Amino acid sequence: MRIHDALSGLLLALLAVAILVTVSQYPPIPGQNVGPSAFPGLVAMLLLGCSLLLIWRGLRGERMPLVVMGAWTRSTPHLINFLLVIASLLFYIFCSTFLGFIITGVLILAVLFYALGVRQVLVLPIAIIATLVIHTVFYKFLRVPLPWGLLQGLHW
């Protein structure tokens, strides 16, 4: 699939503006010059600049349709895998609070590994190890409050 540069740039510019509007509402930290909006605001400004360059390049470049579907969209297995990834994201959004990150992550990775042809004997061990590594990095090192869900009693 190929999306025209001007359309991609426009979508990214809208995302950057949405981020800037959101972070402008973050409260400042008393006594500090740099607040929680500084880093996301900086990234959004860079994104906005790059998206404007992308729009300019798209408008000056070759004439093409706004969206050109790739050959993979006519392949049923590839389309199923694509829809499976979207379904996994929706499953995480709607179930991670109740089930918790670890259970949700293991389920999603196991299903995706199975669908993508990972050897069956490796699917569950890799899904568990990968989820625990991701959880440890985000929860312990980056201090991201991941949901515990059903495993709240095992909270470490």
UniProtKB/TrEMBL annotation:
Pfam families: TctB (PF07331). The chain crosses the membrane at residues 41-59, 82-115, 121-142. Keywords: Membrane, Transmembrane, Transmembrane helix. Residues 8-147 form the DUF1468 domain. InterPro entries: DUF1468. This is Tripartite tricarboxylate transporter TctB family protein. It comes from Ferrovibrio terrae.
